[in-house]
Design a protein that fits this description.
Layout: E1 8-10, E2 13-15, E3 22-27, E4 30-39, H1 43-60, H2 65-81, H3 83-94, H4 98-118, E5 125-128, E6 134-142, E7 145-149, H5 157-168, E8 172-176, H6 182-194, E9 202-204, H7 209-218, E10 224-228, H8 231-242, E11 248-251, E12 256-260, H9 266-278, E13 288-294, H10 295-311, H11 330-345, E14 349-352, E15 356-357, E16 367-368, E17 371-374, E18 391-397, H12 400-408, E19 412-413, E20 415-419, H13 423-432, E21 437-440, E22 456-457, H14 469-472, E23 474-482
Parallel strand pairs: 7-8, 7-10, 8-9, 10-11, 12-13, 12-20, 13-18, 17-18, 20-21
Antiparallel strand pairs: 1-2, 3-4, 5-6, 6-23, 14-17, 15-16, 19-22
Length: 496
Amino acid sequence: MAYPTFHNLIGGEWLPALSGKTILNLNPANHADVVGAFPSSHAEDVGLAVAAAKKAFAAWRLVPAPKRAEVLMRAGLLLQQRKEQYAHDMTREMGKVLAETRGDVQEAIDEAFYVAGEGRRLFGQTTPSELQNKFAMSVRMPVGVVGLITPWNFPMAIPSWKLFPALVAGNACVIKPATDTPLSVYNLVQALVDAGLPPGVVNIVSGSGSAVGRSLVEHPDVRAISFTGSSEVGSLVAQRAAATFKPVSLEMGGKNAQIVMDDANLELALEGALWGSFGTTGQRCTATSRILLQKRIAERFTAEFVERAKKLKVGDGLEESVEVGPQVNPSQIETSTKYLAIALAEGAKLLAGGHPLTEGAYAHGTFFEPTVLGGVTPGMRIAREEVFGPVVSLIEFDSFEEAIEIANSIDYGLSTALYTKDVNRAFTAIRDLEAGITYINAPTIGAEVHLPFGGVKHTGNGHREGLGAIDFFTTWKAVYVDYSDKLQRAQIDNAE
């Protein structure tokens, strides 16, 4: 069966990898469906892309920011027109159901419109000088060429979080799509190109993390790196970037807890837990992987949750009735299987699911049953380590204070949720939960583009997507204008 071949975008031209090699992009619901062949690039390809970006940056940085923003606005309108096609493309290459891929494209649309507004809000500050006849202010400056390394689970939304703020700030970009889901990045960048983005301002280099990602991180002309992925890889990115003094934005793993108090609206909590645990087949850094249940309602909640999990329809995400799609590749199935075995060996009880699906309609894909584990204690590995699959642990607790302690006891700190009708507990949780995001009476997934996104501890290094992205993709310059027509020395001539 014929399939399309894609190339790298370098300096406005579509070029094959210098190696001539390609990587097949397979539909995880049906491996016989080849989405396309994408370049298997290496350091030499990265070098060409960085050189093209560096050349384009010289002119792009001089385009007024409101004009740069107009490109993003036009791109957002094109994404709106192409939403259905891009969502279908994403489901084919990533697997998640159409309702979610439509949401993924919508998030890129939202980001385009939001960041376009920032073209007139790249504010600095004016401040009094300590000397007479002297004016002082600060202005934002673009960083230069930035490298963007993006994951497979949100293959258009997360690239938009990085590309759009970087572009409106005046930077030029080299983006490495995830090996499993490159087409969605190509579609996103095509919208930018069609919206009038000049050649070379955005360049795509496809390939493995070890080849392309590492080369981007280590290239001396790349001035900053924005990375989303695992904590293990993020640590390596930070270490290697440090050699050339690059700032690095890291958005990494999570082990997110939903706390359900005994005064909660249980129907609402059940709906939130089901969506948080099995939306995107559990393949979100914000997925609900721990459900903490106050003991008085634990039995009732568990029985209903297990029953609902068993009824979820697993299948090809292109079918509108399917609720849970495949995992993205065989490696993710192996991880889910491994952690299930570890959990059972440590004493957890299998309440639902627990098996790869390999028969009949599932034979040519990578499917795993929605899996619920009971009897989990906070010290078990399944309660502490990220699985990134449709596997959720139920943990019981006595008091609100104990729930907070359990939620905070892990190395990660991305998203948390509390279900309660007690406003005092709600605000205490907002204060005390160690996480970058806290939801009250809503699941751990569902972030919006205009709020800061990121976490603490092993989840991130202090930078944020969303509201904080402009800060990362700009540097500050202090400006002094002395109109006294004489030498004035700060801290000297004004001293008493």
